[in-house]
Design a protein that fits this description.
By secondary structure, the chain is mainly alpha-helical. Helix content is about 40%, strand content about 5%. The protein has a two-stranded antiparallel ribbon.
Length: about 90
């Protein structure tokens, strides 16, 4: 597998996405919401609203897990609520 540049944007080519292991996807069975680095964790948080409602809790937990690995602070109330980690 090719190493992905740390300076990468939040866009992956089809070939780059195809090379990623299932474990880096927020929804691995669908191979959606790739999060191989901090920029993609932020992108997954930004695009969270487009996730089907029934999959949001799983995606939210995946975003928080990957965010922790990359030192990304998740600020989206929608992600935190769906993961059951909001303060309310």
């Amino acid at each position: 597998m090719r190493i992905i540049s740390k300076a990468m944007t939040d866009r992956l080519t089809y070939e780059e996405k195809k090379e990623l292991p299932d474990a880096v996807f927020g929804l691995p069975e669908r191979r959606e919401y790739p999060m191989p680095d901090a920029a993609h964790v932020r992108a997954a948080e930004a695009y969270f609203r487009y996730c089907p409602d029934d999959l949001k809790p799983r995606l939210a937990r995946a975003i928080l897990q990957r965010a922790k690995q990359f030192g990304v602070e998740v600020k989206s109330a929608a992600v935190l609520d769906a993961a059951g980690e909001s303060d309310s």
